[in-house]
Amino acid sequence: MEIAVLRLRPGQDLKQALWDWTQEHQPSAACLLSAVGSLDAVCLRLAGGDRQLQRQEPHEILSLSGTLCLDGLHLHLAIADATG
Is 29 exposed, middle or buried (0-12, 13-18, 19+ CB in 10 A)? Predict the structure, then answer.
């Protein structure tokens, strides 16, 4: 088993950074176990459909997990804004 730690800088796109890492390292399978930090803006596809949630204000990452492979990313994200 190999462990990788990624650090994103302010303004970096989270999903794009994870995809770039996947393309560079080409794992047959990888899992994302945890994340800490915040996002300046979010665009999420809501479960069970094609609807999206888009917000242009800061959000704290509460939980982030998923799988990363060359077929694509499968991510689950829980966030909170200033009101919870």
Answer: exposed
Residue partners of 84: CB distance under 8 A and separation at least 6: none
What are the helix and strand counts (H, E) for the chain?
1, 6
The neighbour count for residue 59, using CB atoms within 10 Å, is 19
Task: Give the Cα-Cα-Cα angle 74, 76, 78 (nearest 5 degrees).
Answer: 160
Tens-place pLDDT, residues 31-82: 999 999 999 999 999 888 889 999 999 999 999 999 999 999 999 999 999 9
Query: At 9, is the secondary structure helix, strand, or coil?
Result: coil
Domain 32-84 has CATH 3.30.1360.40: no
pTM here is 0.88
How far from 84 is each of 25, 48, 59, 62, CA to CA, in Å?
36, 23, 9, 10
